[in-house]
Amino acid sequence: xxxxxxxxxxxxxxxxxxxxxxxxxxxxxxxxxxxxxxxxxxxxxxxxxxxxxxxxxxxxxxxxxxxxxxxxxxxxxxxxxxxxxxxxxxxxxxxxxxxxxxxxxxxxxxxxxxxxxxxxxxxxxxxxxxxxxxxxxxxxxxxxxxxxxxxxxxxxxxxxxxxxxxxxxxxxxxxxxxxxxxxxxxxxxxxxxxxxxxxxxxxxxxxxxxxxxxxxxxxxxxxxxxxxxxxxxxxxxxxxxxxxxxxxxxxxxxxxxxxxxxxxxxxxxxxxxxxxxxxxxxxxxxxxxxxxxxxxxxxxxxxxxxxxxxxxxxxxxxxxxxxxxxxxxxxxxxxxxxxxxxxxxxxxxxxxxxxxxxxxxxxxxxxxxxxxxxxxxxxxxxxxxxxxxxxxxxxxxxxxxxxxxx
Length: 406
Fold this sequence. Notes:
The protein is of the alpha/beta class. The chain is 51% helix and 13% strand.
């Protein structure tokens, strides 16, 4: 049985295992008559060949309350785009595959580059941003949800629980963030959340003092989850990071734009597993090394925007405080895992902490050297202001790709 703890910063909606999912879905179908719900799936072509995606499609095929599914397809050539359309044709819902690398989409990207508004880099952030643009252009959905495409333990109940808080018109929530325990194959997972984000936020509070933003982030049980739902009215002003700071960036945007009572987290699964990134100790440009640096920078940028002054002395103190906090948490995680019959490699865990410690300093140095760095993709309101035809042309390009290569 789950706990029912509320810490007062944001609402936590638990799964108390007291209600059949069929009842939840029946309500969602009722809500969907007047509040259409769209699901966004940002994926790589390689994920179509993995073990997770076929099962996700099988589960989604039974979801009756969805108005539309938008699939953002990255790293695909023409033949792979054709195959992707066949692959997703199993979905009974209205759906579209957006080929982000098509000549038409690349031409639209060049149009934004000429305006100085193009995303800085390829990746999940740009994929999500493009799908949001298409959804805004459709102008027919009140609720949207996003989840990853590599979830090995996927169940359609995850989606139902994720969208319910923002689909229910009697609830005040504009944003719902999914959470779950990261366990799989008898191991305790979720290294970046457990060993970087949690102890970093503890250390920041000790070093720079109380900040409402830090308490807000600490309220989320799994801040790096890729599963969230929103009411679409907030999407045109949403700033999407183009780097690995996507999840923290979206939470920061919710903090910037909304009252705390408009944000909630919802328990969507008892167990969750997906593909795992390499630590990449030898290459800071990939894997968890790159991810941890980008996450640190995202947090530092937000705190600086709220008035925190960072110096090299602050980052050196933060490094030492983080290291001690992380080792203390590791002891608790180790005991928790052992009590529940899960394995945990303390040597590898400490190796991760050591890498994250260095990357806190690296991120701090990068922040000090370039404090004006803005890795955010321009909002869709700004795009529309600069080029009022862009959203319409983007929607038309997706339809033309479908007609030509479908």
